[in-house]
From TrEMBL:
This is Diguanylate cyclase (GGDEF)-like protein/PAS domain S-box-containing protein. Residues 24-274 form the EAL domain. The chain holds residues 513 to 800 of 806 of the full protein. It comes from Labrys wisconsinensis. The lineage of its organism: Bacteria, Pseudomonadati, Pseudomonadota, Alphaproteobacteria, Hyphomicrobiales. Signal peptide: none annotated.
Length: 288
């Protein structure tokens, strides 16, 4: 079943992007080599409390610079890696690298890692997470796994069993890209989520677009009702952040608060005493 879905994803992808089978095979081959030869790296994007401007964690995002020196976007290579199964070793590498990195910080900030549906449906995923936690020494509560709804629908029972195993380890689970895809509100109740991430497409112009504002308010109400913090993705303007602050959104992430970058760019946050005061949000909120 998963295999078929992978093929569908690929067909859709191929049609949408015009990527030929041979090109896809080449990308897949180069990707495997990149994984073996340390051609992949991670960038980190701050996750910030809206009320205080305090950075509470980072999301790890995988990057690939190919042999020709071009940056291949994840939106292009992740679907290929998922279809071919290469996402399993890549996902494990991402998880291990992010956990090892975070375990070395002097500040106990959160670390969010994206998990592919293919990983969730692979038997033994929770065991891999457990091993990585033991190996890196990261406090499980600092790890947050970001999962999209598409990860759940393939096999609800199996996904639920995996999520329960992960929760038993002490790690947190965030629903990523909420509002896109096959949003089923019952998923929010049936699955042990610890956070809702509203997709960036709803945040765009939320301060000037009534429909976007209505949708975001509804999701914030949902989070409040379910007792789940809500993080707004893709926050790009002070106006959007002010709206989120007025509506009591918990956390925000986006270019306004920090672009994804190598972790060295954030040493003042991972090592510093103060986790706030360096960000736009403070200024943006004061400017009201
Ligand atoms: P995502 O998990 O929803 O990540 C958020 C994406 O939005 C990232 O794109 C990030 O760079 C981008 N972004 C952040 N702030 C802003 C903003 O203010 N405006 C706009 N327009 N975009 C913003 P990126 O890094 O290209 O990743 C795209 C997607 O690829 C991710 O969406 C995630 O689904 C997937 N991905 C990235 N890294 C990994 C990974 O390590 N494993 C897996 N399985 N998927 C990954
Ligand atoms: Mg994510
Ligand atoms: Mg997202
Ligand atoms: Mg996304």
């Amino acid at each position: 079943r998963a295999k078929n879905e992978g093929r569908c994803t690929y067909r859709f992808f191929e049609a949408a992007m015009g990527v030929q089978v041979t090109a896809r095979r080449m990308i897949e081959h180069e990707l495997r080599q990149a994984l073996a030869r340390q051609g992949l790296f991670l960038v980190y994007q701050p996750q910030t409390r809206v009320d205080s401007g305090e950075t509470v964690g980072f999301e790890a995002l995988v990057r690939w610079r190919n042999e020709a020196g071009e940056d291949v976007p994840p939106s292009l290579f992740i679907p290929i890696a998922e279809e071919s199964g290469t996402i399993l070793p890549i996902g494990e590498w991402v998880l291990r690298t992010a956990c090892r990195e975070a375990a070395g910080w002097s500040q106990p900030l959160g670390i969010a890692v994206n998990v592919s549906p293919v990983q969730i449906h692979n038997a033994g995923f929770a065991r891999v997470v457990h091993e990585i936690l033991l190996e890196t020494g990261l406090t499980p509560q600092r790890l947050e796994l970001e999962i999209t709804e598409t990860a759940l629908i393939r096999d609800l029972n199996r996904a639920l069993a995996t999520l329960r195993q992960l929760k038993a380890l002490g790690v947190r689970i965030a629903m990523d890209d909420f509002g896109t895809g096959y949003s089923s509100l019952s998923n929010l109740r049936a699955f042990p989520f610890d956070k809702i991430k509203i997709d960036g497409s709803f945040i765009k112009a939320v301060d000037s677009n009534d429909q976007a504002a209505t949708i975001v308010r509804a999701v914030l109400g949902l989070g409040k009702g379910l007792g789940l913090p809500v993080l707004a993705e893709g926050v790009e303007t002070p106006g959007e952040l002010r709206f989120l602050n007025a509506e009591m959104c918990t956390e925000a992430q986006g270019y306004l608060l920090g672009r994804p970058a190598r972790i060295e760019q954030f040493r003042h946050l991972t090592e510093g005493e103060a986790r706030r005061g360096v960000h736009e949000p403070d200024r943006a909120l004061r400017a009201r």
